[in-house]
Amino acid sequence: MNIIILAGGSGTRLWPMSRSKKSKQFTAVIGEKTLLETTLNRFAGVYPKSKIFISTTPQCINNIKKILPDFPEKNIIVEPERRDTAAAMGYVAGFMSLIEPDEPMVFIPSDHYIRNTAKFLEVLKVAEENIKKTGKLIDVGIVPETPSTALGYTNIGKRISNQAGIEIYEFLGHKEKPVYKKAKEYIKSGDYLWHGNFYMWTPKFFLQAFKKYAPEVYSPLEKVIKLLEQKGESKEIAQRYSEIPRVMIDYAVTEKMSPKDILIIKGEFGWSDIGDWNVLHKKATLEKDESGNVFKGDWINLDTTQSLIYSYSGKVVATIGVDDMIIVDTPDALLVCPKGRSQDVKKIVEEMKKSKKRRKYL
Length: 362
Known about the structure:
Blueprint: E1 2-6, H1 35-41, E2 52-56, H2 61-67, E3 76-78, H3 84-97, E4 105-109, E5 112-114, H4 117-134, E6 137-142, E7 152-163, E8 166-176, H5 180-189, E9 192-195, E10 200-201, H6 203-213, H7 215-229, H8 234-241, H9 249-252, E11 262-266, E12 271-273, H10 277-283, E13 294-296, E14 299-302, E15 308-311, E16 317-320, E17 325-329, E18 334-338, H11 345-353
Helix pairs in contact: 3-6, 3-7, 6-7, 7-8
C-alpha cells in the first residue's frame, strides 16, 4: 500500500498559531514534534520510504522542506493550487495512476491525533487485504464521542466480518457536517460513526469513481493527468487544474456512491481530528498538570484550572483564577476565549479577511 500524507490544509480554528503561511501541521501543538513529523513517524520502519508520499500545495512546500529536509523530493506531490479535497485527491490519484494504478493507497491527514499507532497500522493492513480481495473502497469510521457539526457521519449496516479484532461493516450512506440536532440523532441511533477521512482504494478505482459520480471534476482532471503523463508545461497543467470545481470529495463523490462499492472499518485506535483548541486540550492528556492545564512557554499560574495556555511570543504569561479558558499568545496576536467557544475562532479569521489592515495576521 502507498501512504499519501495530506499536508496542504489551513486549519483556521487553531489561529493565531496556525496561519496561511504556516498551518497547524507544521507546528508542535502536542509534544515537541510537528504534527507532520508525528504523522510520518507512524510509518517509520513499517513502510519503505519509497511507498510514502506527501501531498501539498505551493504555499506549504517550503515548510515541508524545512521540517523534513531528507524527505525525497520526488515523493512530494504538489498540486498547482489549493482547490479543496476533490481536486487534491483527484490530482494524487492521477499522479499515482502513472506509477502504480492498481496498488492500494490510503489518504492520511497530517493533522490527526492517534493514540494507538500499532492498532492503526493493523487497520491499514486489513484494509489493504480487503481492497485487493473485493475491489471496494475502504473508509474508516470512528465511534463518536459528542455531537459535532464539524465532522462527517457514516451510516453503517450489519457487521460483515471481524478480522483479528478489526470489525468491517456495510456502508449505508454518508452525511457531511450535519446540523447539531441531526448530529445528536445520529449518535443516539448508534448506527453512525464519525468519518475519519482515511480513504483507501486504488488510483484506477478512484478515477473511475470521479468519472462516474463527478464528471465536472473528472473532465478537467483527465486533461491534467494527460499533461502529467506527457510531462507538459507546468503553466498549462495549472490552467487545466484551475478548471476543477472547488468542492469536497465527500460532496462530489462519497455521498453519491453506491453502498455496495464501499466497506467501513470501525477504527478504535484513539483518534481525534485536532480541529480546534478545545479538542487539543482534551487530547493532550500526557501534557496536563495536576489541575488539568496544558501549557507551553513561560507561564506563571495561580489557581488556574482546566485551561490551555500557549505562549509563542517569548513573553511571560501569568494567569490568576482562570478556569476553562484558551489563551494563545504569539508575537503579533493574542487569543483569549472560553474553551466552549473555540469553534468560533474560525469566525474571527473570517472577520479579519474583511479588513485589509488585519489580513497580515492571517
